[in-house]
Amino acid sequence: MGVDDRTRDVELSVVMDRPAGDETPRELELSNAFERADDGEIFSLPDADRGQAWLFLASAVVFEAVTWGFPFSFGVFQPYYTQHFADNGSSIAAIGTTATGLLYVSAPFWFTVLKLNPRYRRPSVFVGFAVIVAALIGASFAQSVSQLIATQGVLYAVGGALHYYPVLLYLDEWFVAKRGLAFGVICASCGAGGVVIPFALDWVLRNYGFRTALRTWTVVFVVLTTPALFYMKPRLPIRHHANTGPQRLELGYLKSKTFWILQGASIIQGLGFFLPSIYLSSFAQKVGFSAVDGTLAIALINAAQIVGALFIGFLCDRCHVTTGILVCSIGTVVAVFVFWTFATLKPMLFVFAILYGVYAGGYSTTWSGVAKTVRENGYPGAETGMIISLFSCGKGIGAVVSGPLSEALVDKDPWNSSAPYAFGTGYGALLLMTGITAFVGGFAFYAKQLKMIH
Question: Which ranges carry the Major facilitator superfamily (MFS) profile domain (predicted)?
Fold first, then answer.
């Protein structure tokens, strides 16, 4: 045995006997590489950040793409449902915002349950899978908007949460040094799914109706997700959690000014974030473009999120999180007030969709950087997954509120046809709200300059 090996063994013996939460970065690296069995024997674990970690990441990509990609593609259902459920047209947007909103809002609850009960994590994946299938099939038999809200909205969100949120807990186990990049890849996969899903759903909707579209997507979901189920598993064995005693949650940062400034900015950004994805297809048809053009615009938003998520994830690994937030805020404001304003011209519509996807779509990737900032501000035990779930909840609040609020803005648009360009299409108030919330969502950067956060 060489000197390096002996040194590693001595270091490891110190790590294994030290209380959780007192580890140095070197000790964290070692504890990530080894596990102690019940008889005291130390054995190796799969490597973090490489090897089997990439199989986990591939599975997480599939989970993200299909679980989130479907509700994020709701914009293709919006004009179809508006036409076929005209009596309840004002409630249709609530179907999409309910699904995405509840998926986000429920994150802290499910994360807490699964964090405190590690043995439920893997079963949760399979239960959620079954609930999603039931929700999609149930929605295909719906006879009213309220039934669609209950199935495609509420039930889908419950299943999606059970199915997806174990990913966040496993992410902390499989990735350490490359966690920001891994989270960016996961976020980007939602955009990748959103490129294909709108076109596929739009084609089936136009040719066979929404019932066949939902049943077809159910089959696609099962076929794509089933192989990924086998690799969606923890890196640490369940006995690891049992050996370390009762599971604890570090929540002291909920009293931190830093946390609430960053959370407040995220909630405000979430108020406007979903509006283009929901209404852009209807907007395109309102200004005289084809249904395919509207679907293409939604697909471009989702595709551009791939670039945005990877770029912002990379940025947050190397810069303070508020830098990433500022980039997202400025880019979104320019996209909305310059390019959406002139989106009565088809090229401008597509440029807007791309820029909005990059900058607004990249905002959620900053959440892993928020976790890093919180840990550096006196809460070293703060877990990335819990931070992300709390910020998901905040964004979900924005999504739920934005549904009825956006319907009111469209119904009571102050400009209607009296204003120029996109402001006179009946969607001017939506445009204004999206731009303002994006601007205010960048407040965290200025808070740092004012020494309100560090």
Answer: 258-454
Identify the domain containing residue 434 by its residue range. Answer: 62-449
CA-to-CA distance for 446 and 330, rounded, in angstroms?
Answer: 13
Q: Are 77 and 217 in contact (CB under 8 A)?
A: no
- The verdict on residue 18 lying in a domain is no
Pairing of the two strands 34-36 and 42-44: antiparallel
- Decide if pLDDT at 173 tops 70: yes
Q: What domain count does the chain have?
A: 1
pLDDT tens digits for range 109-129: 988 888 888 889 999 999 999
Task: State the Cα torsion 344-350-351-357 to the nearest 10°.
Answer: 120
The pLDDT score that the predictor gives to residue 349 is: 93
CB 394 within 8 A of CB 266: yes
- Answer whether 290's CB lies under 8 Å from 350's CB: no
Pairwise CA distance, residues 334 & 167, whole Å: 34
Q: How many helices (H) and strands (E) does the chain have?
A: 22, 2
DSSP letter string, 255-292: G-HHHHHHHHHHHHHHHHHTHHHHHHHHHHHHTT--HH
CA pair distance 7, 26, nearest whole angstrom: 12
pLDDT at residue 315 above 80?
yes
Q: What is the CATH number of the domain that holds 431?
A: 1.20.1250.20
Amino acid at 442: G
- The count of other CB atoms within 10 Å of the CB of residue 223 is 10
Q: What is the pLDDT of residues 250-276, one digit of tens each?
A: 788 888 888 999 999 999 998 888 888
